[in-house]
Amino acid sequence: MADSLKIIFTGVGRGLKDSVVGTFKIYNIDKDLSEKSQQQQSEQRRTVLSMRREERQKADQLTGKGEPKKNSEPSVRNRILVCCAWNGGVFGLSIFMFNRAVLPCLQFLIHYFTGGTAATIWHWMGPLLTWTFSALWIIPIFILSKIVNALWFQDIADAAYRKSRGRPLLPSLQMLIADLLFSIILESVFLIQGMLAKRLLPIPGIGDLVSILHMCLLYSLYSFEYKWFNMNWPLQKRVAYIENNWPYFVGFGLPLAIMTSMADSFVISGCVFSLFFPLFIISANEAGHIHEIHDMPLMLFTPAAKVTNQLFPKLSRRATPSSGHTTPSSGHSTPAGTPKKQLHIR
């Protein structure tokens, strides 16, 4: 029992450390990418064909004044700064200013000019202004942010992956689409599962603990999914790996789960998530090996996987590789003949 608790707390502590320390790796990513690009260019110069290609590229880069064009591709840090500026500066700050500045000022002006009838007027005017602001600003910006963030998150993850591991190993287009759709459905069902656990468990405090546990694992899956997808890991293998190493991933997703749970609304929680999530993508990409597999897997994804399989059986079959992987309903999958001990991050 003592050894099991030691393994759990050690795994949680290591995951927490990797999630925080890994965010500081953004200062080295752009430098490493630049050095790697220069090294590849120096290797290409060894052939006559590459030398001619380089001369043509130099000629094409010259403008009318004879000055070379600058590389317009933004750095990883610039991508993260733009993402944070949009989610925190535009989206989050606008909500904060409306609730903390605009509404109180309007309420004060109404009370100043109307006197005794201010409470009656504000009783219907306050909710009307909030609803109008939500309909005309929050909802459209929230939907736009989801689309833009998806592109930015993928861009950040791909740049970080190229720095550490090179070219992604992507599956076929059909498998890619099926895996993406099945992953979205499974994660949505898992999110609902965590919300139901919080509401339905009768013991005080246990429901909140189980809900936080769900969110930690889900945020860890979100963070590592970009890396594992580029490594061509199928969804079944990704979920099984988290279930077998759940102490580490509970610790990794704990900071983001706590920050989002402190928000008083779903929209604010989504804004906080989008603000800090790019840093966790970097941390997940830079995370080291997980050498120990926990002997007692926490199979929280298995009920959600079974529900998803029952609802979308054809999609689950398309998302399951044919090279000896088990079905996702079991919640575990390893390549044929490969023991679980070999499922470490490479």
From TrEMBL:
<feature type="compositionally biased region" description="Low complexity">
    <location>
        <begin position="319"/>
        <end position="339"/>
    </location>
</feature>
<keyword id="KW-0472">Membrane</keyword>
<feature type="transmembrane region" description="Helical">
    <location>
        <begin position="79"/>
        <end position="98"/>
    </location>
</feature>
<comment type="similarity">
    <text>Belongs to the EI24 family.</text>
</comment>
<feature type="region of interest" description="Disordered">
    <location>
        <begin position="318"/>
        <end position="346"/>
    </location>
</feature>
<dbReference type="GO" id="GO:0005783">
    <property type="term" value="C:endoplasmic reticulum"/>
</dbReference>
<feature type="transmembrane region" description="Helical">
    <location>
        <begin position="173"/>
        <end position="197"/>
    </location>
</feature>
<dbReference type="GO" id="GO:0016236">
    <property type="term" value="P:macroautophagy"/>
</dbReference>
<dbReference type="GO" id="GO:0016020">
    <property type="term" value="C:membrane"/>
</dbReference>
<dbReference type="Pfam" id="PF07264">
    <property type="entry name" value="EI24"/>
</dbReference>
<feature type="region of interest" description="Disordered">
    <location>
        <begin position="37"/>
        <end position="73"/>
    </location>
</feature>
<dbReference type="InterPro" id="IPR059112">
    <property type="entry name" value="CysZ/EI24"/>
</dbReference>
<feature type="transmembrane region" description="Helical">
    <location>
        <begin position="203"/>
        <end position="224"/>
    </location>
</feature>
<feature type="transmembrane region" description="Helical">
    <location>
        <begin position="131"/>
        <end position="152"/>
    </location>
</feature>
<protein>
    <submittedName>
        <fullName>Etoposide-induced protein 2.4 homolog</fullName>
    </submittedName>
</protein>
<keyword id="KW-0812">Transmembrane</keyword>
<feature type="compositionally biased region" description="Basic and acidic residues">
    <location>
        <begin position="43"/>
        <end position="59"/>
    </location>
</feature>
<feature type="transmembrane region" description="Helical">
    <location>
        <begin position="245"/>
        <end position="260"/>
    </location>
</feature>
<keyword id="KW-1133">Transmembrane helix</keyword>
